[in-house]
Every structure is written in structure tokens, then in C-alpha cells.
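Sync notes, pocket subgroup
Present: LS, DG
LS reminded everyone that the earlier model was apo-only. Rerun requested with coproporphyrin III included. Inputs:
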Amino acid sequence: MPDASGGAAFTALLFHSFGGPNQPADVRPFLENVTRGRGVPPERLEEVVDHYLHFGGVSPINRLNLDMIAALQAELRTRGLDLPIYFGNRNWTPYVAEAIAQLQADGHRRALVFPTSAWGGYSGCRQYHEDLAAGLSEVPGSAELVLRKLPQYWDRPGFVAAAADAVRRAQAQLGEGTPIRLVFTAHSIPIAADRTAGPPDGDGFLYSRQVAAAAQQVARELGLDRFDLVWQSRSGPPEVPWLEPDICDHLEDLAEQGVGRVVVCPIGFISDHLEVIWDLDSEAREVAEKLGMDYARADTVGTDPVFIAMIADLIQEYHAGDGDTQALGCADNGSFCRPGCCQLPARPARSGARSAG
Ligand SMILES: CC1=C(CCC(=O)O)c2cc3nc(cc4[nH]c(cc5[nH]c(cc1n2)c(C)c5CCC(=O)O)c(CCC(=O)O)c4C)C(CCC(=O)O)=C3C
Ligand SMILES: [Fe+2]
């Protein structure tokens, strides 16, 4: 029922993700989209090109998102929720503007938006809002649309339970033996970006605090009081501080401390995209092998029915037009959930870089 706080029911869902290349020719233009204006050093970019080419120039992210969409569509149907799902990405086709144009052409005026990032912060949240606003601006006549982004969901019990279950399966792979150290990882970001993450009147560091709290909740569910939190996939120039320690450095430290068995849980990602399979299944696994450690990587939550049910619950909370629109991350049409939220900090000039002037 329409009301001042929420409005009418939503009739479609936009599944909003990062995007990734589907073939070798996509790799460079995709990376240009991701890094435009972001100060990623060219030598880092060349390394990442090689990571993608190592996997045939195809990221699994698009296929895995389509699997999640199919599972979610089925779950919504069993709940009697008839919301067709549209797929749109920030950095590669199908772009979010294509999805918006399509849902509009199909007669939808109000759609919920599910982002594949669970987190706050510039990269995890605000950039998705900005991408929605940019997508809307490309679609003629879209001023009549309401696209409501669902809130951050890192603390939802279904996410935590699915991640805990994945850790249990990874522990089982290693079998009985000496104690296993549980190591959580998430995408590193510049510390300056973490500092500005969250509402401007808050304490900052929203992203790293959310990741730490999610890790804590998963560990608690597993009955573990000891776990580590580390970071992966750093891409900035070396002189710019990013969240540390890096997963590979941390494995070295653990080996020195006598830890012989680790389970790595990529809590920072909801599906196995390229940075998970390269950084964790190739690089970190190799480091662990070299150190003589037993190593298992927990699955991402992906199509785990418990996680899919969590997404469906979130949609159900919001689909009639109610739901907490003040929740962090929730906003319409690419506006921000708080004014000045999760600002992108000014990038320090790269020392040794040629001056632009
Ligand atoms: C917080 C965060 C998430 C989690 C939230 C979310 O899920 O959105 C995430 C996810 C992802 N990041 C991804 C890929 C990349 N991220 C890059 C670069 C960067 N990520 C950053 C942060 C994050 N990234 C940052 C601060 C940069 C530096 C440039 C900048 O300041 O923006 C680069 C450039 C090259 C490089 O340097 O690695 C690539 C290729 C893929 C898709 C992989 C695939 O194709 O399967 C996914 C899901
Ligand atoms: Fe990234």
C-alpha cells in the first residue's frame, strides 16, 4: 500500500554486480573501466591482465552471478513473489544502463536493487550508488523510475551461517590433526578510503569494522575464539598505505609461529571471482605449500540455499514499499544513504610519477 515513507510495491529486481571479462578481448577494456581515474600503476595493471589471461581471459563472476540469479528467482517463486530479475554490472556488459533500459521497456517503474557487495565504503557501496545514478542518466525517460538499493547485509544471519558452513566443509577437507588456524580475508582498500568509510558524523573505518565484525560472528558460530583477519588483492602504488597484512605475508608469519594448518575464508566476497581464484587458490596456496602448511580455502556463499534465502528475506522486507529505508546502504536512484557518506579521499600524488603538467 502506498505511503509517505516507502511508496508502492516493487515489481522487479535489478541484480547489480561488478562485472568481469567473458573472453580475452574483453580483459583490457574491462580493466580500463575498473581503474579509470583510480591511480592504479600500469605495472600492477599488466600483472592483473596476466591473471585474467591465465584463466583464458574469462572471469567466473558472470556465470556465478547467473547461477545466483537462477537460484534466487526459483526461491522468490516458491514464496509467491513474482519479481523478474534483471542483471546489470558496473564494469562490463550487461551494463547497469542496459538492465535499466530493459526493465523500463518491460513496463516496470519500481525496482529493488540487490548489490553483490555486502559492505559499506566507497568501493563496496557508494560506487554502486554512483553507477546506478550514471546508468539512469543514460536511459531516456528514466526520471519516472524508482530504483531502491537494498541495504548492506554483511551482518545478516543467513550470510554468517552460510559462511560458517563453508568453513566447516573446508575444515573437513583437512581432516583430523593439529589445530587449524582460521584466516578471514577481504579486499584491501587504501587506509584513507577506510577512514572516510561510513556516515561523515560517524567514526569512519566502516568497511574494515564491518569485515571484522562479520568475521567475529562467523567465528562465534563455529565456536572459535581465535581467528585472524587479513587482506588481499591490494593494487595501489607501494607508497600508499592499504589495509594490511596481506594474506601471503601472513602465511609466512603463521609458519614462523609454528602454525601448520590453515583454512582461508574469503568473507569479503559473495562469489568466486577472479581475485578469489587467483590470489587464494593460486598465489596463497603456493605460498602455503612452499611453507609446508596444509591449506584449504572455504567456498564463497554463492548459491548456498541459506544465503539465497537471506537475499529473498531482504527482498521480502522491502518489496511492498516498506522496509527500513534508513538502513545503511539503502537509497533511491543512486542518491546516498547519508549526505557525504563514504567519500572518496583525495589521492596522494604518486611520488616518482611524471607530473601531468
Ligand atoms: C572493496 C572491494 C571489493 C568488494 C566489494 C565488491 O564486491 O564490490 C572489490 C571487488 C571486486 N574487485 C574486482 C576486480 C578488480 N578490482 C580492482 C581494483 C580495486 N578494487 C578495490 C576494492 C574492492 N573490490 C579497490 C579499492 C581497487 C583499486 C582501484 C580503485 O580504487 O577502484 C581491479 C583493478 C586491477 C587491480 O588492481 O586489481 C580489478 C580487476 C572484482 C571482479 C573480479 C572478477 O573479474 O572476477 C570484484 C568482485
Ligand atoms: Fe576490486
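DG: The beta strands are 12-17, 85-89, 110-115, 146-149, 181-187, 228-232, 261-265, 294-297, 331-332.
LS: Residues 101 and 301 are 30 Å apart (CA to CA).
Action: DG to write up.
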